[in-house]
Every structure is written in structure tokens, then in C-alpha cells.
Amino acid sequence: MPSLELYNQKKEKVGNINLSESVFGAEVNHALVHQVIKAQLAERRQGTAKTKVKSEVRGGGKKPFKQKGTGNARQGSTRSPLMVGGGQNFGPQPRSYAERTPKEMVRGALRSALSDRLKAGHLIVVDKISFAKPETKAALKVKEAFGLDKVLVVASADQNVELSMRNLKGVRMLRTEGINVYDIVKHDWLLLTQDAVKTIEARLTREEKGR
Is 18 helix (H, G, I), strand (E, B) or coil? Predict the structure, then answer.
């Protein structure tokens, strides 16, 4: 069973924490992580690009020039794709880029990403993060205490913490239910609160047993 030192937000050791083997000690499947991230980013695409086809272009009621004698190929409408200002053939149309990803694949990729951070030594667990009021300076002290540059912070919902963290460069904070593979991989470090660890383990362990 993996084990880590448990710190407070001042980086003072307050104990140790045992982590779930099935969640934080899983075999890292890089191909699965890549597939899930690819689907996650594809779902974010708006898919609103659009060009007008021949039937949507204005005009075209009059023949642009006479049928014969001009030396040009015959044309019946200015809306033709062959004419300047005409419609476009096979241009982009509104569409959804979302890819269907089975839930178990997403959960497996999440276990892989968490396990990879632990194996790389880039996972830190703190007992809790709390501030008396929203204050960026207080959040900066936490970041500087651990000497982190690009870090993903995952904690239970706390408005003071969320407002304090959101302006820090290189820091992204998510509530426990919002943890995802892309953000874990994107950031060099992962900082979890003790409550977040328990919630993540309960969620992934329960879902694994319920397959």
C-alpha cells in the first residue's frame, strides 16, 4: 500500500497517510491516458465554423455573361462555386466533435494519471487548506512553502480558498468532483487535501467494484 508524508499548508509534517493501492498504485496505461485526453479536448471544441453553400449565397438570378462568344466557360449563376463570391463546396459546417468514451475508460485513465504522479514523486497531500478570508497573498505563501511552479490543487469546496487561488500564476484549483485526466497531466505537480484523497478513493474504488 503506497504511503506519503502528510503536511499542513505551511509544509510542516503532521503524520503519514496510506493511499489506496487500486487508485494510486495502478499500472500506468499511457495509451489509455492519451485516448481519454484526446476525447476530453475534442469535446471542448465549439464546432461552429461554417461556410455558405451555393443555395445560401445572395444573388445569382441573372446569368453573369452570355452563353457564347466570350471565350470563358459557360456560367449560369454568380452563386456557382466557380465564381468569385460564390458558394463553397465541401466547406466546414456546424458539427459536434465529442467522442463517446466509456466511463470505465475514463476511470482507468484517472487511476493511471494519479498513479503516475505518485510514482514520479510529484504528489503532495496536505491535511487541509483554509483561509480566514479570500486573500491571494495567503495562497501564495502555500505555493512558496512547497516550492511549486505549475501545480493542480484539488480540495473540497471552499469559496475562500477558491477565490484566493484563482489569481496565482501556474496554479489551477479544482473541486474534488471536477478532477480530470487532462488537468493532472498538464500540471507538473498535484496537491491534494486529505479529504480530497478520501473522496477520490471512495469514488474510484466504489465504481471499480460496481463494474
Answer: strand
User: Crossing angle, helix 194-209 and helix 103-119, to 10 degrees?
Assistant: 140
Specify the pLDDT at position 208.
54
DSSP for 124-170 reads EEES----SS--HHHHHHHHHHHT-SSEEEEES--HHHHHHHTTSTT
> 205: which 3 cell numbers?
474504488
User: Residue 1: which of 105, 123, 115, 106 has the closest Cα?
Assistant: 115
The arithmetic mean of pLDDT across residues 115-141, rounded, is: 95
C-alpha Rg value of the chain to the nearest Å: 27
0.90 cut: is pTM over it? Answer: no
Residue 8 belongs to domain with CATH number: 3.40.1370.10
Cell 503524520 locates to 15
The domain tally of the chain equals 1
Whether the per-residue pLDDT at 102 is higher than 70: the answer is yes
- Indicate whether 64 belongs to any domain: no
In a domain, residue 87? The reply is no
User: Is residue 126 within 8 Å of 8, Cβ to Cβ?
Assistant: yes
Residue 52 belongs to a domain: no
Q: Give the range of the structural domain holding residue 201, as residue numbers without chain letter.
A: 3-29+100-209
